[in-house]
Amino acid sequence: MTLALAIDTSTSRTIVGIIDGDNVLFEKFHEGATDHGRALSQLVAEALKVSHPPKQVVVGMGPGPFTGLRVGISFAHAFGLARNIPVIGVCSLDAIAIDENEYIVAIDARRKEIYWAHYKDGVRIEGPSVSKPAEVDGFIIDQYPDMKKLVALSSSQNVTEPMYLRRPDAVPTAERS
């Protein structure tokens, strides 16, 4: 496998890792849903001190809140472009490591909703979707993407568009009512 910088900003955490095959050389997070921009550059600077330069960037593409995703995805693309290395997108929910045969994993979507997906034998069979928690039975929440799993999934996924499951909160002035 290739030495990878892994980034996810789909949850309230900014998560950064340096992964070399099965070895996690660096993995750290910063808690704060509105602090992705500041935290991401600091975590990446810290990560780059522990290894050789990465050969690829793997980024969580959501689902997640609009601004948080935009920060991580934009940073990943700028980093990759500046170094002429590939950027590979992965569904963030797929990278949440759960040790069960069948499960539904969810993350907070704010507005009293969750982003969720249903898995069987490690394969997503439904979702990602956004729903009220009462509409989804037996989901597991308060888990976060695992950077090692995110990078492992990059060999079978390349999500090229952010997974926005609803319209952003911000709207142009002309569209406000």
TrEMBL record:
Q: Which UniProt keywords apply?
A: Transferase
* All copies of domain Gcp-like, residue ranges: 34-153
Give the GO molecular function terms.
transferase activity
Please name the GO terms of the biological process aspect recorded for this protein, alphabetically: tRNA threonylcarbamoyladenosine modification
Which InterPro entries has this protein been placed in?
ATPase_NBD (IPR043129), Gcp-like_dom (IPR000905), T6A_TsaB (IPR022496)
Q: Output the Gene3D superfamilies linked to this UniProt entry.
A: 3.30.420.40
**Key word Transcription regulation present:** no
From which residue to which does any coiled coil extend?
Answer: none
Q: Name one GO cellular component term.
A: cytosol
Name listed for the protein in its UniProt record? tRNA (Adenosine(37)-N6)-threonylcarbamoyltransferase complex dimerization subunit type 1 TsaB
Native source organism of the sequence: Candidatus Planktophila sulfonica
